[in-house]
Design a protein that fits this description.
The complex is a heterotrimer of chains A (245), B (291) and C (327). Chain A is an alpha/beta fold. In chain A, 38% of the residues lie in helices and 24% in strands. Chain C has helices at 2-22, 25-50, 58-76, 93-116, 121-140, 165-188, 191-201, 203-208, 213-232, 235-239, 244-247, 250-263, 269-288, 291-308, 312-318; strands at 151-152, 158-159, 163-164, 241-242.
C-alpha cells in the first residue's frame, strides 16, 4: 500500500488556555474524497488553517507526500500542492476575475520550477477555469459585482488554479440554494475525477453524504469517528454530539 | 553608596507614581485600540487638548485642573462619538480602515497639534493647584504631590472603568463587541452604537488625563508625540485590552523610564518606551497578560 | 517600459533645461524641495499604496540618509578626520553619497521589515513610528555627528561644468526623482506589483495562492526605505546646518503620507501629482502666511481627501470607480 498523500499525526493547537485541537490523527490517500464534519466550534476551520500553514501547530506533525511540512510557510505548501478555499470568500477586490486567477497561476504554477508559462498560456488557463465554473462572461468584472454563489465559484476556481494535488474546500456551499449546492458538488466531483484529492468540510449533510467515500467527525477538538459515512453517522458518539446535550 | 541608594529609591518611587499616571493616559487606548481595534494615534492630541483646556480655565478662574476636565468629560465624550461616527461611515463600513483610517487619525493628530500651536504658541504652559509644589516625605523618600495626585486619580479611573466594564450592561457589551460582534447583533444590540459609546469614553478619559499631565509638567503642543509611543507600548505590553495588564505595564514603563532618566540622562527617555514597544512587537506581541 | 524610461529621462532633461533658462537661483532652491518630495512620496507609495502597509516613520529613513552623509563628511570631508574628499573637484562623489544613504536606509528598512512585518498592518504602522523616534534619539545622543546641537556641512561654492552648486544638487535630485518614478512604474507592471496588490487586498488569500508575502513585503520596505534614504543624502548640503529635531520631524512623515493620499495611491502618477501640488502650496503658504499654517493645510487636506476622495486626485479625474491598474 502506497504512502498516504496527507498524514496528520497527533496534531494539537491551543489558543492561550483554550485547546482547539487535540491529538488529531488523519490519513488521506491519493484520490480519496473525505468529508469532515462537526458541530460549530469543533475545530474544523482551525484544522484547515493548521494544515495549510496559516496557523502554527503546538504539537504533532503533518506530512505531505511523505515529507514533513511543519516548517513550511503557507505559500510553500500551496506550491507543494495543497490548496484551500476559504469559508468566507476572500477575492482580490481590486483585480478582475481573470486577474484573480492569474495570481495563483503566476505565483504557484509558474513558480514550481520546470517549464515557465508564457503570458498567453496563463491567460488561456485562466479563461478555461472561468469557463469551467461558469464565470466566463464575467472575466473582466470585479468581485464586488458577483453574487454569493458566484463568489464561491470564484473561490473554488482560484484554488483550482493552483493545480493542486489536495484541495480542501471549507464550507464552500454555505447559504446556497439546492440547485446551487448541486452545481458546486458536480464541480468537485469533476475535479476528483481529474485526480485531485478532496477534503470537503460542510454542514449540508446530503452533500457530504453523497460526496464522501470516508467521513471524519470532529467534536470539541477531537476526532471521534473516522470511517464509512453511513456507519459513521450511526455511531452513538456522533448522535450525541449532534442531537444530545 | 548612600547617595546612590537614595537616588535609586527616589527614581523608583517617581517611576511608580509616573506609572499610575501613564495608566490614566493609556486607558483610552486600551479601549479604542485594545478592545475596538481602532488605531487612534491621535489619542495624545486629545490629551494635550485636555491639558490646554485645564490651562485656560485655571489661568482665568483658578479652578482646579482635574475637576475642570472631569466637568468637561461629557464634551470630550461627544467629540469622541463624533470622531468615531465619521471613522465608521468613511472607513470601517467600507473595510478601508487599514490605510485610510490610519491616515485619518494621523491627520487629526497633526491638525490638533498645529491648531494648538497657532492658538497658544510654543511657550510652555502650566497650572497652579494646592498639590503642585509640596512633597510628602515618607521613609526618607520624597514623594511630590504633583505626582501622587495624578497617580491616585489614574488608578481610580482604571478601577472605575474596570468595574464599569464588568458590572454594567453597556460595559459588558463593550467587552463583547471586542470579541464577537456578530453575537452581539444576535442579541439585538447595535454594535456600532456600543463602539461609539466606547470610543467616546476613551476620548473622555483622554481629556481627564490631560489635566493630570499638566499637573505633572508644563506642556507645549508637541509633547503629545512623546506619548504616542508610550501609550501603544503600554497597551501592547499589557496585553491589548486587559485593564489590569495596562496598569502593570504602565508601572513597568514608568519605572524603566525613571531609572533610565536618572542614571543615563533624560534625552534617552523617549527611546525607552519606543524601544520597549519595538521589542514587545517583535518578540512577544501578546504582551504580559495577553489574549 | 523602455519607451517610458526614455520619455521620463527626456521630461527630466526638459525640466532642467527650463530651470536653467529661467536662470533664477530660487527656482533651483524651491525645485529641489519639490523634487525631494516627489521621491519621498513615490517611495512611500510603493509600500503604502501598492502593498497597503502604512509607514509613519518616513522621517527615520530620510534622516538616516542625511546623517550617513554627515558621518562620511566627518570622516573624509574637507573638515573631517581624514580629509580625503574635496567636493569642489570631486563633486561626482555626491551621487556616491546617495548610494551610501540608500544602502544604510535600505538595510534599516530590511531590518525593520523583518522585525515587524509578521504583525498585522496596524502594529506595523505603530512600529514604524517607534522606529523614527528611536532613530532620532540615537542621533540626538551621538555627539560625533553633533547630537542635539546639530552639525554643519559646508557645501563647495562651485562645481565643475555646471558652476553653481545648487544647480548640481537640483540635477541630482531630479535624476533621483526620475529613477524613483521609473522604479515605481516598473514594479507596478511586474509580477512583483501583482504580489503587492494581492497583499493589500487580502494577505491571507495571497499566501494561499502562493505569493511569498514576507519576501514581497521585505522587498517593499527595503526599496521604499532605500529611496527615502537617497532623498535624504544630499539634504545636509542643501540646508548646511542639520539638527535632529527638524530632520526627523513628523513634517516629513505627514507629507510622505498626505502627498500620495491626495494625489492617488494606486499608481506612480498619484504621488507625483500630490507632491508637486502639496509642496508648491506649502512653499507659497510658508512665504505668504506662516509655516505653521502650511502644516495645518497639509493636515486638513489629508483628512479631507481620505474621507471624501479615497482615490485621490487621480481617482477623481479618472472617475470614481477606477481602482486597479491595467496590465
Amino acid at each position: 500500500m502506497s504512502a498516504p498523500l496527507l498524514k496528520v499525526s497527533g496534531l494539537g493547537k491551543r489558543f492561550g488556555g483554550f485547546v482547539a485541537l487535540e491529538a488529531i490523527d488523519l490519513e488521506v490517500a491519493q484520490g480519496e474524497r473525505v468529508g469532515l464534519i462537526g458541530p460549530n466550534g469543533s475545530g474544523k476551520s482551525t484544522l484547515v488553517n493548521c494544515l495549510c500553514g496559516t496557523l502554527k501547530i503546538d504539537g504533532g506533525s503533518v506530512a505531505f507526500e511523505g515529507q514533513p511540512i511543519d516548517s513550511l510557510a503557507a505559500h510553500e505548501r500551496t506550491r507543494l500542492g495543497i490548496a484551500r478555499s476559504f469559508q468566507l470568500p476572500r477575492p482580490f477586490g481590486s483585480l478582475t476575475l481573470a486577474e484573480n486567477l492569474r495570481i495563483p497561476l503566476l505565483f504557484t504554477v509558474d513558480a514550481r520550477g520546470g517549464e515557465k508559462l508564457g503570458h498567453g498560456a496563463i491567460e488561456a488557463r485562466a479563461a478555461e477555469l472561468l469557463e469551467l465554473v461558469g464565470l466566463g462572461p464575467k472575466a473582466a468584472q470585479r468581485p464586488r459585482d458577483l453574487s454569493q454563489v458566484e463568489m464561491r465559484k470564484l473561490e473554488l476556481a482560484r484554488a483550482m488554479a493552483t493545480e493542486p494535488k489536495l484541495l480542501i474546500a471549507d464550507e464552500a456551499m454555505a447559504g446556497l440554494s439546492h440547485a446551487e449546492v448541486d452545481d458546486i458538488l458536480a464541480l468537485l466531483v469533476t475535479l476528483n475525477e481529474r485526480g485531485i484529492t478532496i477534503i470537503l468540510i460542510e454542514h449540508i449533510m446530503r452533500a457530504v453524504m453523497s460526496f464522501s467515500q470516508r467521513l471524519v467527525v470532529l467534536v470539541a477538538g477531537r476526532k471521534i469517528v473516522d470511517g464509512e459515512p453511513q456507519a459513521a453517522m450511526r455511531d452513538p458518539e456522533v448522535e450525541k454530539a449532534y442531537l444530545g446535550q | 553608596m548612600g547617595l546612590e541608594l537614595s537616588l535609586l529609591f527616589d527614581a523608583l518611587s517617581a517611576g511608580v507614581l509616573l506609572g499610575g499616571f501613564y495608566a490614566a493616559v493609556t486607558l483610552g487606548i486600551s479601549i479604542s485600540f485594545g478592545m475596538l481595534n481602532i488605531v487612534n494615534i491621535a489619542h495624545p492630541a486629545f490629551i494635550i487638548l485636555g491639558s490646554y483646556i485645564a490651562y485656560i480655565v485655571n489661568s482665568k478662574y483658578g479652578f482646579d485642573p482635574i475637576l475642570t476636565c472631569v466637568v468637561m468629560a461629557p464634551a470630550f465624550y461627544l467629540l469622541g462619538a463624533a470622531i468615531y461616527q465619521t471613522y465608521y461611515v468613511s472607513f470601517e463600513k467600507r473595510g478601508d480602515e487599514a490605510l485610510r483610517g490610519l491616515a485619518y487619525f494621523f491627520g487629526l493628530l497633526f491638525i490638533t497639534e498645529v491648531a494648538l500651536i497657532l492658538v497658544f504658541g510654543v511657550d510652555y504652559r502650566y497650572v497652579t493647584a494646592p498639590y503642585i509644589g509640596p512633597s510628602w516625605h515618607f521613609l526618607g523618600i520624597e514623594i511630590p504631590l504633583r505626582l501622587l495626585v495624578p497617580c491616585a486619580v489614574g488608578v481610580a479611573m482604571l478601577t472605575g472603568l474596570q468595574l464599569f466594564l464588568s458590572r454594567t450592561f453597556i460595559g459588558r457589551a463593550i467587552q463583547a463587541v471586542s470579541q464577537d460582534q456578530f453575537a452581539l447583533q444576535l442579541m439585538s444590540v447595535d454594535p456600532i452604537r456600543i463602539k461609539r459609546i466606547a470610543f467616546g469614553i476613551s476620548i473622555a478619559t483622554a481629556g481627564i488625563a490631560g489635566a493630570l499631565l499638566i499637573s505633572i509638567q508644563p506642556i507645549e503642543p508637541s509633547i503629545g508625540r512623546e506619548y504616542i509611543g508610550r501609550v501603544f507600548a503600554i497597551c501592547v505590553l499589557g496585553g491589548m485590552g486587559s485593564l489590569p495588564g495596562t496598569l502593570i505595564a504602565a508601572f513597568v514603563l514608568g519605572i524603566a523610564e525613571s531609572l533610565t532618566s536618572t542614571f543615563y540622562g533624560p534625552s534617552w527617555a523617549p527611546a525607552v518606551s519606543f524601544g520597549i514597544l519595538l521589542l514587545t512587537l517583535a518578540f512577544r506581541p501578546a504582551g504580559i497578560l495577553g489574549r | 517600459m523602455r519607451l517610458f524610461v526614455l520619455i521620463a529621462a527626456l521630461a527630466g532633461a526638459a525640466v532642467f533645461g527650463v530651470a536653467l533658462a529661467i536662470g533664477n537661483a530660487y527656482v533651483f532652491f524651491a525645485g529641489y524641495v519639490v523634487l525631494q518630495f516627489v521621491v519621498l512620496a513615490t517611495a512611500w507609495n510603493i509600500l503604502g499604496g501598492y502593498a497597503g502597509y502604512v509607514n509613519f516613520g518616513s522621517a527615520a529613513f530620510f534622516g538616516l540618509g542625511a546623517y550617513s552623509t554627515v558621518v562620511i563628511m566627518q570622516l573624509i570631508g574637507p573638515t573631517g578626520a581624514f580629509p580625503l574628499l574635496d567636493l569642489e573637484t570631486e563633486s561626482a562623489a555626491i551621487p556616491l553619497l546617495l548610494v551610501v544613504g540608500g544602502v544604510v536606509s535600505g538595510i534599516i528598512g530590511l531590518g525593520m521589515g523583518y522585525l515587524t512585518l509578521r504583525l498585522r498592518g496596524a502594529f506595523f504602522s505603530i512600529a514604524t513610528l517607534a522606529l523614527a523616534v528611536v532613530a532620532q534619539t540615537f542621533i540626538v545622543n551621538w555627539e560625533w555627528v553633533g547630537g542635539s546641537r546639530g552639525a554643519y556641512v559646508i557645501p563647495p561654492a562651485h562645481v565643475a561644468v555646471l558652476g553653481s552648486f545648487i544647480d548640481y544638487l537640483f540635477l541630482v535630485m531630479l535624476a533621483l526623482a526620475v529613477i524613483s518614478i521609473v522604479i515605481a512604474r516598473a514594479i507596478e507592471r511586474s509580477r512583483l506589483g501583482y504580489g503587492f496588490t494581492t497583499i493589500r487586498d487580502d494577505e491571507l488569500a495571497a499566501e494561499a495562492c502562493g505569493v511569498p508575502t514576507l519576501r514581497v513585503k521585505l522587498i517593499a520596505t527595503t526599496v521604499s526605505g532605500a529611496l527615502m534614504g537617497m532623498a535624504g543624502a544630499p539634504y545636509p548640503f542643501y540646508v548646511t546646518y542639520l539638527d535632529p529635531s527638524s530632520t526627523f520631524s513628523l513634517y516629513y512623515a505627514v507629507n510622505a503620507i498626505a502627498m500620495p493620499v491626495v494625489g492617488g495611491t494606486t499608481s506612480w502618477v498619484g504621488p507625483l501629482v500630490g507632491s508637486v501640488l502639496l509642496s508648491t502650496v506649502q512653499q507659497v503658504a510658508t512665504v505668504t502666511i506662516s509655516s505653521a499654517v502650511n502644516l495645518l493645510i497639509v493636515g486638513v487636506l489629508l483628512v479631507a481627501f481620505v474621507i471624501i476622495a479615497p482615490n485621490g486626485i487621480v481617482g477623481l479625474i479618472a472617475g470614481r470607480r477606477w481602482l486597479g491598474r491595467r496590465r
